[in-house]
Amino acid sequence: MALFLGVDGGKSSTKALVGDETGRVLGTGTGGPSNHVGEAEGRERLARAVTGCVGLACRQAGLEPAQVRFEAACFGMSGGPADKQAILAEILQVQKLIVTHDMLIALSGATGGDPGIAVNAGTGSFAFGRNQAGETARAGGWGFVFGDEGSGFDIARQAVRAMLRCEEGWGPSTALYAALLETSGAHDANELLHNFYTPEWPRPRVAALAQLVDAVARDGDPVARDILANAAQQLATLAASVGRRLFRTGETVLVCYIGGVFRSRLLLERYSQLVELQEGAVCRPPRYRPAAGALLEAYRAAGIRPVLSGVVE
């Protein structure tokens, strides 16, 4: 029986899926974080995370991890593939090893391995696409200083800016002012802003305030609604940028959305409308998660395209 492995190596956890040659998922396993290999003990952290999650997946499949040789394995790493290929080759017995970035496996999972575009908006944001010829293109994903348009962090940043303009008298009144103070526990905008520069407010915690912006927008606040509408516009623009470089005008293109930002009904409705203004674009939720996308890429490397079955998340 030929075996295949897909791994999503993330900042908070690492997830592995083991499948057979028919596309049936035999086992899954989760381990610790596996990015930032360049940091102290990063190599050991990567090895522990991979051996842990792959071992769990193998044992769930009724296999002895030390005896398993994979036909192909794909690792999608949130920190990028650099410096990881050699380490992973030492850990695994695998005929063909692919180490790539998290954007590719997110796309492959979202579209089920088909051509298309994935727009991911969580703490950060990016768009990534691949066409029938295998050509790829990206837009965004340049971090919170120079990019991440439409992301959770960007939505929270725009809300704080609106709050500051309100306090200083050169922006409209907004319910975001009181909501942000209450949620953060700050006494005024100055204290809130300074708190956001401390270790107690890392980027993911700030980005989570996008949910507050959505709540205020649903209550009818025009400033909050404009922030969400602008975020939807920026995310749709990322998708359109990728689409123009990969697909012909009018060609049917699957555009999938991924990430917590799209839990906002207001933002998602506006985003979907804008995406589907592009002729041929079809906006859909993701079919699978990134780990399944990595498994699909392992199959792709072996030249097969099975339909996934079993416990697929």
Q: Could you explain the architecture of this structure?
A:
This protein is α/β, with parallel strands linked by helices. It folds into two domains: 131 residues, ATPase, nucleotide binding domain (Nucleotidyltransferase, domain 5, 2-Layer Sandwich), CATH 3.30.420; 174 residues, Nucleotidyltransferase, domain 5. The protein contains twelve helices and eleven strands. Strands 5-4-1-2-3-11 form a six-stranded mixed β-sheet. Strands 8-7-6-9-10 form a five-stranded mixed β-sheet, with helices on both faces. The longest helix has 25 residues. The protein starts with a strand and ends with a strand.
Describe this protein with a few key phrases.
313 residues; alpha/beta; Nucleotidyltransferase, domain 5; 6-stranded mixed β-sheet; 5-stranded mixed β-sheet; 43% helix; 21% strand; globular
